[in-house]
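[step 3/7] fold_predict: job queued, chain A
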Amino acid sequence: MTIYALSSGPGISGIAVIRVSGKSTAEVVKKMIGSKLPPPRVATLKKFNKNGGKEVIDEGVIIWFPGPNSYTGEDLAEFHVHGSRAVIKAMHLAISKFKNCRLAEPGEFTKRAFQNGRINLIKAESISDLISAETEIQRKQALKIMSGKSSDRFNSWREKLLKILSHVEAKIDFPDEDLPKNIIKVIQNTSNHVLKEIKKTLNDQKVGERIREGFKIAILGPPNSGKSSLLNYLSKRDAAIVSEIAGTTRDVIETHLNLDGYPVVVSDTAGIRSSKNEIEKKGIKIALKRAEDADLKLVIVSVKNVNFTSVLKDLLKKNAILVVNKSDLVKGKLNSKFKKYEHVLISIKNNSNLNKLILKIKNKLKNKFTTTEDILITRERHRQNLINCAEHLEKFQKKKSAQDFDKAAEDLRLATRHLGMIVGKVGVEELLGSIFNDFCIGK
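[step 4/7] structure written:
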């Protein structure tokens, strides 16, 4: 089937780009412009006619990309028209009248590019990440992955394992032949080297995932300590309801922020206290779970609340900043109990010291996002396949005797398979739907 879709953003715009890809593309172009195909990859001004007739839909630019030298690897055309809803609707309707033409599904152009060998699976994912990028660091990471460095590394490891697998299988096929001693040494050294490289890559503090998904900050503390007010201040809008009534927040309220180019997801949670209300108890349970998953916890308490519960003390043990709110109520020195923890004294009401808190958060972000190594892992599926690969390599290394050669070969096959799944070499059909459905239609 030939597919078509609006590839530029929806809504009114100066220019809209409609893509067509597939076997019938040449026929669509010729009938829409009423003449022969324009020169390949040259922007050509033409009138676009309704269903090959005399009625003109619009005048714009046509760019013809004959396959396989196109984005999808098949015949592809781009119609650049004026971006009104009426023009786009008329163009879609006209293209839909051609035989074997249908509207594209989300991500189908990029999916075809992958299926036709134009890009690998990692590059496809990085294209999706670039489209979704909201911060500078996300844009840079997506471009770096698109350059192919990570794919090259995964493919290099896979090729090394395939090479030693061929030696192991040769021993299985020809058991009476002795492998040269240097070959056995090469097998051991290569598997050791690849395993060390993979373990080093896995020990990356999940920087790639943090950049892609956002640094998770959870605001926690007892009721009426100023959690929702702090979320609203950081968001620069009324994201959460602020009330003097304790227990107003029952569920988690999330907001996505851009702090100096760093992506952040801030969560306001239910006030932590003993409660008999079933809904509030569930909210508190969710809050504590969110604390476990957070990269940074902002534990906010009122300057009057010097009675730290065991729960609050546990929250402050790791990756946490104690935020002491309502400094306007302090008379004299701050209670010494607060000074035991890394803390910031603020007043949301008087807008006091909040810049100091934000600076502290930014420093935490910089420390988490700073890495001297190239980022290779940006998604959970990459990490899980590398973990599985490392496990099979460890099993392979434990097999020493000739009787174990069959099992050793299977361990190597599985290790190479998991590396192949990352770049899309093998067994990825079940992944394609979930990956490409995240794309917008037209990409």
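[step 5/7] annotate
The CA atoms of residues 19 and 335 lie 66 Å apart.
The two ends are 17 Å apart (CA to CA).
exit 0
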